[in-house]
Structure prediction request, 72 residues.
Amino acid sequence: MSLVKNVGSTDQAIRIVAGLVLIGLAFLKLGGFASTAGIVSTVVGVVLIATAVINFCPAYRLLGLRTTKSTN
Prediction:
């Protein structure tokens, strides 16, 4: 299974910003790794940033979605 790019540039920017906000929220408001909400927020933030960096979202693949115009 190859990782065909399915995350476009606008989607990528939104994912990076949302990921950073979630990570910041986890450590500034939710107690970081001391709370379940902080852990969940951090993990979701890291996943968003990772999918933005590699331009591939497994959920999009399962749903047949693509926010990029190219096929690779």
Notes: Residues 9-28 form the longest helix (20 residues).
